[in-house]
Structure prediction request, 289 residues.
Amino acid sequence: MKNFTVDSSRWKLANNIIVVVLALWGIAVQNYSLKDVSTFEAFLIEAFAPIQRGALSTREKLANMLDHYVMIVNTSKDNAELRKEVKALNNQIFEFQEVKKENERLKQLLQFGKEIPREKVLAQIVSWDASNEFKVLRINKGSADGLKKMSPVITMNGLVGYVYRLTPNYADILTILDQNNRVDSIVARTRTHGIVEGISEFKCRLKYVNRTEKVEVGDEIITAGLGNIYPKGIKVGKITQIDKENYGITQSIVVTPSVNFHKLEEVVVLIEKEEKTENRDVAKEETNE
Prediction:
């Protein structure tokens, strides 16, 4: 039995050696034959090779164009986003500049009129009369802020008017441009008394000035402090026209207000110090009711 196993192993080894030798011999003697190209095949190759090369080149160009288009689209999207960001930043810069300008105006208003012995309430213009002649303005402060009817309203440039209508949070101002607002005034240079009242086209008239008074164009008009409404010495305007008629005892005098109502944005309401606390209590009671 043992001899049979040994013979079988030897036979397998010899068989494997023979197979490997035959395989190596087959590789060594293999002969690759080179096939000649026929005339027709050569014609086809010569005819279609440029077409294939052109097709390959076209495919490469199309691929490059597609990549370029995708790049352009992406760049356009990026540019659109950047434009939005730039626009948003410009808007923020504009808002910051407007806030800065407003703060500067409010600071100047607070510093203005320190010699006037009244408390000051800053307010913003929120609307004006439908006629667009600025005879009536509405501000965003009311009785809850201490305002009272007949409280004078000024700016650092001069007199605006007085409070004639009031709610807890808003107030309407009757400006000096309205003919119903009569301001007891004096000419600063000559101390001549008169009454300023509105006429039209953003002008006022100084009335009841005697023909003998030596007033001149350019003279400044200020409040006289009479009538228990306006403090004395607030600028009202300047004389821009004088007409001495051939009849009558007075002069026709046109006054241009010191305040530019076209550019008016903020005002100061002057309040008697003893009035402010009482008005706030009244406003709270009205609100509670």
Observations:
- The longest helix spans residues 39-111.
